[in-house]
Amino acid sequence: MHLRYKDKAQTPWKKMNKFEIPFCVVWSLVDGALVLHCTEVFQFSIGFVTTAFVGHLGDVELAAVTVAENILDTSAYGLLFGMGSALNTLIGQAVGAGQLDRLGTYTQQSLIICGTTALALAPVYIFATPILQFFLHQPVDVSRAAGQYARWAIPRLFANAMDIPLLMFFRGQSRVWTLAAISGVALAVHTVLTYIAVRQLGYGLPGAAVAGDISQWLIVAAQFAYMIGGRFPDTWKGFTMCAFNNIGAFVKLSLGSAVMICLNYEFMAILVAMGFSTAIGIRVSNELGAKRPMETRFAVLVAVSTSIFMGSIFMGVVLIWRTSLPKLFSDSEEVIHGASKLGLLLALTVWMISICPVLSGVAVGAGWQVSVAFINIGCFYLVGIPMGILFGIKLKHGTMGIWMGMLTGTFLQMAILLAVIFTTNWDKQAALTEERMAEWGGKEKLPLMKSPHTDDQMTPALEKMLAQDSKKNVDLLCTE
């Protein structure tokens, strides 16, 4: 839904009745989440396409790519995404408070932090073979093949380090349609490149990895051109040395975000939930920045209930297709049978991890990363992993038992986050937002802007500021 206004005297919330406001909040979350979902699906499908092509080369190649992407890439991306989630909090609250000139500086700080993190992770890719073989006990042939693939995939690691802050920059301003288009084009290009490299030229794993590198850097180049192309005059003022000021506070929040996210990164299996996670994170941070606790509470309720409904749908899809989907990735009857056997447990997992990312999105929007990080540590390290060892090793249930133990930790985490969210005093959280922004954004070097004075305290600062420009059509909800 596109909600635009030209009359500078008109503000949307004042003109809406009590039925229109809930509908607009619901539609903005759903519409924004669907567009974000498309973006996530397109980018995730780059690895999906790679696995589908490489899997038919042989079982070793399939295992190598699966190990490299599910262990190395997912862990690295989870850490990078967690570090970048601090930017999601700060940008969302800055937009809600009308402090648009801070977005560019925040984004540059996040690029520095994520780039440094990628540099620290590069040795893991370089020495992937011994790490997989000696520490994770993977077969020798699989470790060697996965190590070869990982070394060729190092450029993609640095592309992800740039991609994540850029995504946060655009999403925080609800400029998401262009991102979906860029990702869709990149997916098409990647499919062609992978087909040529793997099927036509026979370059195998190195060819597949290079095709992925090119596709990911194509996304970053297009996003960067979009950012500096003059479409964001209020939020992108060019590169500045101020990005290095007070970066320690940003690092502190980023580390908390990373611990919170990477301990819970199995939710990549459900990308609709990723879309809702980002959408609710943006909505919560915007509403808190604008000091609207009632709208925050309503948005959280809508997002959680919608994620439960969507999770139930996906659970049904998994149950129906559990014997057919494995055939896309392998011709081995043993692999297909093993994957189908785990389909029932996968269905339950899909339902749970359709809800958890949305709860994490609420936490990111509210700036609770550090607190939720401790919840995740307790649920997974003190409950999930011990239960997995008990069921899988002690009681000899194998993979099924380990999976059941981890699901126990996921369920506990979900229950605790639900309890925390629905007992939160959102009025207090809205009052703390300005103080939180000053602490994390660097109070001395980047002073907070004063919100325009008005007698109507329910009108958000951003809407009042934009309403002064009668020549512009302004998007107020989660669409361009």
Would you mind describing this structure in some detail?
- The structure is a single chain.
- The chain folds into two domains: 22-263, no CATH class; 270-441, no CATH class.
- The protein has helices at residues 12-15, 20-55, 59-97, 103-126, 128-135, 140-152, 154-172, 177-200, 204-228, 247-262, 271-289, 293-321, 333-341, 343-366, 369-394, 398-422, 426-441, 461-467.
- It is built from 18 helices and no strands.
- By secondary structure, the chain is mostly helical.
- Helices cover 76% and strands 0% of the residues.
- Helix 2 packs antiparallel against helix 9 (204-228).
Radius of gyration: 23 Å
Q: How many domain regions?
A: 2
Mean pLDDT: 76
Describe the biggest sheet? Answer: none
> DSSP helix count?
18
Shape: globular
Please report which band the strand proportion falls in: under 5%, 5-15%, 15-25%, 25-35%, 35-45% or over 45%. under 5%
SSE topology string: HHHHHHHHHHHHHHHHHH
- Termini Cα gap: 10 Å
Q: What is the SS-derived class?
A: mainly alpha
Q: How many beta strands in the DSSP annotation? A: 0
Low-confidence runs of at least 5 consecutive residues: 1-21, 264-269, 442-480
Proportion in helices:
over 70%
